[in-house]
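Morning, I've got a small favour to ask if you have a moment. I owe you a coffee for this, so here goes:
>
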Amino acid sequence: MISSGPVSFSAISHSFGSRKILDNLSIDLEPGKVVLLSGENGSGKTTLLRILAGLLKPDTGYVDTGSGLLSWRKSRAKLISNFIYLHQTPYMFEGSVYRNLSIATSCVRGYENRKNRVLDAMEWAMLGGHRFAEAKTLSGGQQQRVSLARAWLRQPPYILLDEPTANMDSKSARRTLQLLEKLKHTNIGLIISSHIQHQFDSLADDHLELKDFQLSFLNARQFSGNVTPISRDREIV
């Protein structure tokens, strides 16, 4: 696992042309905590997740990973290392489930060690019977579990999930939620974007709503000061 502590984002703003999407947002994240992000379609949830993951450059934005406040641009490499973004339609490589998972073990030394890690991931994700199945032929729920297993193999400090149970039947959704609970218990921070809010009631520590370019708390059990403008007395590098 890549070592990481709390991460604070400040003054995040983004527009597409003349259309404002995000305006001066701040959010604090912590390993082992689950944040549920809700909002109407088009409110900017995916845009925000991609910015947090280092995949989309904001118009303005600052990040503090524990070494002082830096611009988003100077923080991007660390964000890409510490955050994994999972789309609601998981990307599957050509080939079997085993091959899809083995790609995430490139840093593990030794063939037998890599093989054992992949087999452990299959068991963890309840995919043991699909080792030789073509990944692209799996159901949406099974592909989501492959995607989560790849993330589990990498053990990042944070995983950002964009509508992880979209278009799933109740059984597949329950299995996905079980894996998210397991990830939380391994001290991985989760940010979950979803319009199916009730599914995550027992999992989420905080619930944020994105509306009219702003974030607001629908509950504030942990971080009462997360959603605030950037402080003028904080040094920006």
DSSP finds six helices and ten strands in the chain. The two ends are 27 Å apart (CA to CA). The helical segments are 45-52, 72-82, 97-102, 111-124, 140-154, 170-185.
